[in-house]
Design a protein that fits this description.
Number of domains of chain A: 3
Oligomer: homodimer
CATH topology of the largest domain in chain A: Aspartate Aminotransferase, domain 2
């Protein structure tokens, strides 16, 4: 050493590993207790807008505070503002079902604190992800082309919105021979999805510079599934107008009603027309774990890309969307920008995957750990058991609705989402929904089908059992009775 | 009840709260032990491409496995493939410094498992985020216009890449009176950033349909900071060519060399030209916690948007980028698409924030918990202490480089990143970098400045102390000596 330094070791403010251990136990205890008392909370938070903020100090503390104080305030200040997505009485939106192995896998990811943007920044982060996503190709019996050992491959995205955006961008570049990345959009590209597709497709076309005027909303049939004849007609009309059809998004399990677009027919059209087909199975793809539900993926051999969300129905906490492409080279060429400070030998060999080129952001978390934990903890048979149970409970619930003359099913129930109405118009159903949600006993959300207000009941929360579903039906019946008798 | 059901309670495969408690303790222990032995690992993983995958079974298990087995395999199979971002000897890329309170706040977020896409989906998730981001405006003394109580507001994004994409999109829509969202891009919009800006800006213009040909790379001065005269000239030239300048990204602390663009001059140009100014302080914004470093934000009063990354230098584990806009209405109008199934009363009152309209994806995690935990645990003075210590250590290191005739500084060292070279050309420096990283004693990355290979040493890991920095300098000197003497 040619230099001499003398730097005092000062107070660090950091927790020691043993302090972390003690406080970590306390947080684990808090979560365990939270799950044990989940059913005691009103599912939908009852706070008024601004109430949580008013309970918090206007400025940040100058001096550090005791961990015990912070944790106590989670209980006192934060908990009242929580809508309990993990409650067994949560039937709203999508299940978002976390589980113990997922939470613990995610904790390890936080603890390791590594970046997965490049293979080199933590090889295990990339390789475990590739490996688990290949596992899932086998588990769901997806087309082999989606395997990383073929020309395709899978990657974890935060959400299906981002997955469909990546698909849209790759499609855009394939259609323009990568000229759009270079020169920008020119208003000639046209995308297609059904009127029942997720709102993210509209957001994606706006983000990607395509413009929502260039997104065609294709009509659906009586089951709310895309009509292939209408798609073909629209494509033909657009071609004749000098436009360039380049992207179709089909949905397997729409958000509104779980409708399943006819992918074989749509796929044949896309193949003939050389249009990128993305299949969005965010809500429902998990069902394909069970052989009896694999029909939902019929036609997937036509797809250029596909996604489903373990954070929606596979016991994996947010965020975890599994996104697959049949041709990874196109995706990578679309999203790769390589500055000097990211260059490295492993990348240059071409022997590794750098997932930064498979997504919108650069940085990425070690998300495959939680997915690996879930798959290993439950095993394929544990996961199948629960998917079957959720579908069975939903079918049983649908049966009850059908048998009760005061109610009607608003859509077919292929899997675990029931769309129902009390007979009597939008006002009645809005009141019913409000009463149920205000009661705190359960939480349902709504949609509109055939321009009529419709209650959505989605069954797949981790801890939902038959008794919760039975109780939900009882409560729906009770409140409907009260409304009908003017109480 | 008009129906009768009899559903047996079957084996659930789920962990009970008490099983979760026991295994949660085990994971907390593993992490505590990991931090206690962090210095024993080679910082950069030594595995060969494919090695991790080969150690894993080809297919997923049919039957569930014991948690103890899974955790043991993290140690055995995953750990060798980890590049230790949390090591005190990690000086590569950016620090990515996690901390105990962040890990525990994130654990709570995983446990609660709520969605923050709408205010109603968990009011506390939205309100705590808004509140903590307002705290940070005060803590960093950012312009008041970024407060949610003014016309602006803050939101947590996954990364600065996504933040700058949102800024770019809002700028695009403001410049075209929201016509681009509707009709798509037309190739006339032009964006500007320096040749030293982060690669994500190029990626963003590609994603947004602007095209990289319409991104101007503005020349930098001898300190690698954007030249305002060159910016003004380019804008003028583009206007004369009939193009529409709409977006400038200035950088406060570039990734390559920590250069600080002259925001006051750039801002004045943007104001005059009515161009959206985004200031990317991902790497360095945290420094503004300390009054003596707040000069880095001079000129921020001109900015339409701004971001900095607590996951880069504020003890908050990934992902956590804080993104601010001066005019939230423009951002929201740019990114909002409202389908029926997301409509709700709270949203309709206009009294609440729905953060889904402030970001690319729809779903979002409760990320403000970890940030709240960090700020409260350390307090403003704890955070200031560490920022000062990191900068002091970096300045001391820079002094050593300057004093040693075998080395040179390749750029000014305003904060905590030192760019250096051993005198003797690219080959020598590449060998030096490879030897150091292969040794496992420390991890540095590189960049190119003035077309010469340059070592980057970034000092801000949570557990980095003076002794680690001193040892790093010693190792750099040793390996350089060996190389120069032909060993």
């Amino acid at each position: 050493m040619s230099t001499s330094v003398s730097i005092p070791e000062t107070k660090t403010f950091h927790m020691t590993p043993d302090e972390f251990r003690k406080r970590g136990y306390a947080v684990v205890d808090w979560i365990a207790d939270y799950y044990a008392r989940l059913e005691t909370f009103p599912v939908l938070s009852r706070v008024e807008p601004g109430a949580i903020r008013r309970s918090l100090p206007k400025t940040a503390p100058v001096a550090g505070e005791a961990f015990e104080t912070i944790l106590a305030e989670v209980e006192k200040l934060i908990l009242p503002g929580i809508t309990h997505w993990q409650s067994p009485n949560f039937f709203a939106f999508f299940p978002g079902n976390a589980s113990a192995p997922a939470i613990l896998g995610d904790l390890l990811s936080s603890g390791l604190g590594v970046q997965g943007m490049l293979w080199a920044t933590s090889p295990a982060c990339t390789e475990l992800e590739t490996h688990v996503l290949d596992w899932l190709v086998h588990m769901l019996v997806l087309p082999q082309k989606f395997l990383s050992t073929e020309a395709g491959g899978g990657v974890i995205q935060d959400t299906a919105s981002s997955a469909s955006l990546c698909a849209l961008l790759a499609a855009r570049e394939r259609a323009t021979d990568f000229a759009t990345n270079k020169r920008g959009c020119d208003g000639k590209l046209v995308a297609y999805t059904s009127s029942q597709a997720h709102s993210s497709i509209e957001k994606d076309v706006q983000i990607a510079g395509i413009g929502r005027d260039n997104l065609r909303s294709i009509a659906v049939d009586e089951k709310f599934a895309m009509r292939p004849d209408a798609l073909a007609r629209q494509i033909d009309q657009d071609r004749r107008a000098g436009l360039i059809p380049f992207f179709v998004c089909a949905t397997v399990g729409t958000t509104s009603s779980n409708a399943i677009d006819p992918v074989p027919e749509i796929g044949a059209i896309c193949q003939r027309e050389k249009i990128w087909l993305h299949v969005d199975a965010a809500m429902s793809g998990t069902a394909a774990l069970c052989p009896e539900f694999r029909y939902i993926h019929d036609g997937l051999e036509f797809a250029d890309s596909y996604c489903f969300n373990p954070h929606k129905w596979m016991f994996t906490n947010f965020d975890c969307d599994c996104f697959y492409v049949a041709d990874r080279k196109t995706l990578i060429k679309t999203l790769s920008v390589l500055p000097e400070y990211l260059r490295n030998k492993a990348t240059e060999t071409g022997a590794v995957i750098d997932y930064r080129d498979w997504q919108i952001p650069l940085g990425r978390r070690f998300r495959s750990l939680k997915l690996w934990f879930v798959i290993r903890h439950y095993g394929i048979e544990g996961l199948q058991h629960h998917v079957r149970e959720h579908v069975r409970l939903a079918q049983e619930f649908a049966g009850w609705v059908k048998q009760d003359q005061r109610f009607e099913l608003a859509a077919p129930v292929p899997l675990n989402l029931i769309c129902l109405r009390a007979k009597g118009g939008d006002e009645l159903n809005q009141s019913l929904l409000d009463r149920l949600n205000r009661s705190g006993d359960l939480y349902l959300t709504h949609t509109r089908l055939n321009d009529r207000l419709t209650l959505r009941m989605c069954i797949a929360q981790t801890n939902t059992q038959a008794r919760h579903v039975k109780r939900a039906w009882q409560r729906i019946q009770e409140e409907t009775e009260k409304l009908q008798s003017g109480k």
